[in-house]
Amino acid sequence: MTAEGSGGAGERHDELVAAMQRVPELAGRQLTLTALSGGITNRNFLVEVEGETERYVIRLAGNDTHLLGISREVEQAATVAAAGVGVGPEVTAFIRPEGLLVTRFIVGSPVTDQAVHRPETIRRVADSIRRFHQGPAIPGLFIPLRIVEAYRALASARGVPIPIEYGLATAVGRRIELALLSNPLDLKPCHNDLLNANFIDDGMRIRIVDWEYAGMGDPFFDLGNFSVNHSLTPAEDRILLEAYDGGTSRADRLARLSLMRIVSDFREAMWGVLQQGVSTLDVDFVGYAAEHFDRLLANAATPAFERSLHEAAGG
Question: 274 and 151 in contact (C-beta within 8 Å)?
Answer without folding.
Answer: yes
